[in-house]
Amino acid sequence: MQISSRFTVAVHVLLCMELLKGEHKITSDLLASSVAVNPVVIRRLLQQLKAAGIVRVARGTGGAELMKPAESITLLDIYHAVECVEEGELFHFHENPNPLCPVGRNIHGVLDGRLAQIQRAMEREMESITLQKLLEDTREKICCNS
Amino acid sequence: MQISSRFTVAVHVLLCMELLKGEHKITSDLLASSVAVNPVVIRRLLQQLKAAGIVRVARGTGGAELMKPAESITLLDIYHAVECVEEGELFHFHENPNPLCPVGRNIHGVLDGRLAQIQRAMEREMESITLQKLLEDTREKICCNS
DNA sequence: TTTGATGTACTCATTAGAGTTACAACAAAG
DNA sequence: CTTTGTTGTAACTCTAATGAGTACATCAAA
Question: Residue A146 has what pLDDT?
């Protein structure tokens, strides 16, 4: 299975928030129109980002903004905020291997560490990419094609 | 979402094939009993591993075995064999960002490379782990607890 | 011809994701 | 204190992927 599109949508939304602030009030409708999904999907996503301390959302009056500087928000933070699965659980392990089989009895002991190692490699890479870098890349591209 | 348990089941199955050969004929029933799933699930999995050139399955008479030495089978090979998604598609990207928004217009250009970079990190780690290493780890553990 | 496997077509249940509608709760402006 | 424009959230549908299971035709070798 793939990692949910909530992740790429979340990055998209955060970029919008920083790049369009000033020009527009950042409402779920505006974000929904940029991403091209239903506004309710955006609102649900904003709730997850809020719970993770990444954004603030103004109820009533409307509008959302970052709660931290973009340099201190990494792709890993965003990933953890929007992915529902427990930390350290990228891989789905089959539950009840047969303890009577020498392999079934030991498969967890052999594999668990390896799987964690693979996941860590992915997370390290995510951690190395900040929202700030993506903002710079985006600004540069906007310059070229507008 | 998590990576399907087909992956860990596949690793389990391949370890069984090497460690139990000689002692038992490697049938889907035997493997199913060690993994604790339905034999049909195992047969379907073996078809995918066969298509990837990793195993040979004896129709009629029954029995399965590796087609390559365990040193030359990596976790990445197994992952590619059993995961249905296209190569390079760990992340699910939202399809139609709004080209009228400067962010929507550029989000693919900004993110695609980064996502590929993250996925490569994961795949490099998978590639570094061979079935042979896992076999050695398993033999060692079996020694200790039998 | 018997035997014990595999290969595969079905059906079914469960789960996660995503889309949509509807509406109560809310904050600020008038 | 009422209007206005939003957010927060419940309820529902739809789709796709996974996984479980049954049944049976196909097959190879004894």
Answer: 63
Question: Which phi and psi (to 5°) does residue B144 adopt?
Answer: -70, -30
CA distance A77 to B124: 22
Q: Give pLDDT tens digits for B80-130.
A: 998 866 655 889 898 789 999 999 999 999 999 999 999 999 999 999 999
Is the CB of B97 within 7 Å of strand C?
no
CA dihedral A126, A132, A133, A139 (to 10 degrees): 140
pLDDT tens track for B11-52: 999 999 999 988 899 999 999 999 999 999 999 999 999 999
**Phi and psi of A24, rounded to 5°?**
-130, 155
Using CB atoms, pick whichever of B106, B115, B126 lies closest to residue A138. B106
Q: Does the CB of B121 sit below 7 A from strand D?
A: no
Interface of B with A in 53-112 (CB under 8 A): 75, 85, 89-98, 101-107, 109-111
- Chain D nucleotides close to protein (CB under 7 A) are 5-11, 17-23, 26-29
Q: Locate the domains of chain A by residue range.
A: 6-144
The rounded distance, in Å, linking the Cα atoms of B65 and A93 is: 23
Residue A109 token pair: 């002991």
Q: For residue B135, give the nearest of B1, B16, B9, B8 by alpha carbon.
A: B16
Q: Do A94 and B146 touch (CB under 8 A)?
A: no
CA B96 to chain centre: 31
Q: Which fold has domain B6-144?
A: Arc Repressor Mutant, subunit A (1.10.10)
* Cβ of B61 less than 7 A from strand D: yes
Nearest nucleotide by C1' from B84 CA? D17
- Taking the CA of residue B61 and the nearest CA in chain A, the distance in Å comes to 23
